[in-house]
Amino acid sequence: METKKATLTGSLVVLLLIIVVLGVSILHYGVAPHIPIVLATIITAVYGLMLKFSWKDMERAMVKGISYGIPAILILSLIGVLIGVWALNGTVPTITFYGLQVLSPSFFLVSAVIITAVVAVMTGSSLSAMGTIGVSLMGVAYGMGISPEMTAGAIVSGAIFGDKLSPLSDTTNLTAATAKVDVFTHIRHMLWTTIPALVIALIIFGVIGFTTSQGGADTSQVDEMISTMQSEFMITPITLISPLLIIGLAVRRVKPVPSLSMGLIVAVLTTFYTSPGSSFGDIMNAAHGGYTADTGVESIDSLLSLGGLESMLFGVSLIIVALAFGGLFRGIGIAHALIDSMKNVLRKKGNVITSTVVSCFGVNFVIGEQYLSIILPGQMLEDSYRNTNLHPKNLSRTLEDAGSILHPLIPWGVIGAFVMTTLDVGMGYIFFCFLCLVTPFITLIYAYTGWTLTPLDEDTGSIVDTEEEETDENSSRSEAL
Questions:
Q1: Whose CA is closest to 369, among 318, 332, 439, 441?
Q2: Which of 216, 271, 281, 445 is deepest in the core (most CB within 10 A)?
Q3: Domain count, the chain
Q4: What whole-number distance in Å separates Cα of residue 259 and Cα of residue 257?
Q5: Which residues of 251-266 are buried (b: 16+ CB within 10 A; e: fewer)?
Q6: Which residues span the membrane (predicted)?
Q7: Average pLDDT, stretch 165-187?
Q8: Is residue 120, in this structure, part of any structural domain at all?
Q9: Which residues have C-beta within 8 Å of that of residue 246, sequence separation ≥ 6?
Q10: Quick check: is 174 in a domain?
């Protein structure tokens, strides 16, 4: 049976219905995005049936979409296992301990950025960094008489920076999978925007720190965390061998799965020295179910009770349903119909990147969901990057710069609501999230100057999916790992 071509009107109607379903479900009912995305997939499938697509064709499109996420799913699974072992063997406590040592009343806001960035890099979670170290820093800020909104802005800036450059982050891996690019290549390319944004943020916070009078510092909460970690864990540079090995392998362009696997082996071996009371069974339990801290100090227990394979199942299931939706959305031609209507605009590289920024912010603003702000624009604009000779890592970087990095600026989004509730501040914190505010402008400058933009025919080895690899998908996925 011959299929019909998706029309612009039909595609817009489907897109509007999807936005309504996602918006009502996530914003009004406050549910996780999984089921709303399933409903969006059903709506898309109904339109596909109206276009005379067979169920087998649509199923094939969804399976193909999911296949692109297999490397990310394996990476996230390994990450969960690795974090559980890191928490057990003292890697996370050691990193946190050293981070708190740089706390200085004279450079409090700058220190807040650095500390939360370090914790976020090592845990791969901006929420964990903000909800643990961030809460303690807020207490110190009140003792110093520093604006809570400024402090919250510094905490968010550091946490988001660390999260975006962490190979342990779910959104970082999701973005790389969406753009079909190697995750370490994606992180390296992001340095062009995040490092300048971080430097600008640190300069602004430094100026604020020098020009704002500060009272006596009450660092009792931080002192308690430091003393507890010293007494409960072995704080030693030996625990840093595993993360440093992973970083070194990433610099050498070793693929993520082998890098994480070797880091995991080293982490397990060092556990027998840094946590001598732990058996191999304890290590396996931490790897599967995560590590549960029991120090008696709530902030420490909250920070260090993390990791495990089970902790990643939320992200893994989200990747599966989201990529299935994206594969169907593209497979029946909706994405092409929408993009075709903007062909005249999307002939220039700068306009393609600008459209990505606007789309990501639009999804964030309307729905308040950072995962969808990555997936929807990424699925819709992927071909436009290839058509304008832009490497997929330009797409992955822009999706992060305008999707997950802008997400904290949306008060009704997940992170925005989390910040206001956990750090007990009003919407005023938004004006001090300098890293989030600056990054998209740096992206747009690069977009129209062409600086740091990689053409499609360069660094082809980092592309997870190419036209040549389409003929042998199994070989492609093996190479990606």
A1: 318
A2: 271
A3: 1
A4: 5
A5: eeeebbbebbbbbbeb
A6: 12-31, 37-55, 67-87, 107-140, 190-213, 233-251, 258-275, 312-339, 405-423, 429-448
A7: 87
A8: yes
A9: 167, 259, 260, 262, 263
A10: yes
